[in-house]
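To the wet lab folks,

You asked to see what we're planning to order before we commit. Fair enough. Below is the target structure as tokens, and below that is the sequence we designed to fit it. If anything looks off to you, flag it before the synthesis order goes out.
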């Protein structure tokens, strides 16, 4: 560990983290690695969901309203729906 510049003891509040002493290019590399991991993992997860159970409802249910088929109720009372 590098000695503090201002004479403070190690661990005292105000000391900079060793991560901030690294060159900024490493921060960019870390951001790119995290973005890549999340993107690939999400792509795989959504692809598996799409191929197994599907990510959309049937066209008929979508047109009539999913709440009617799932819950047996209309989402909006008739008094609020414009005809």
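Sequence we intend to order:
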């Amino acid at each position: 560990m590098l000695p503090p510049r201002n004479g403070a003891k190690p661990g005292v509040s105000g000391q900079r983290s060793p991560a901030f002493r690294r060159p900024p290019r490493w921060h960019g590399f870390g951001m790119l690695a995290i973005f890549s991991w999340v993107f690939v993992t999400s792509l795989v997860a959504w692809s598996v969901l799409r191929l197994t159970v599907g990510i959309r409802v049937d066209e008929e249910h979508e047109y009539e309203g999913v709440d009617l088929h799932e819950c047996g109720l209309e989402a909006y009372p008739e008094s609020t729906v414009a005809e």
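Structural context that might help your review: The chain has a mean pLDDT of 77. The chain has three helices and no strands.

Thanks,
Computational group
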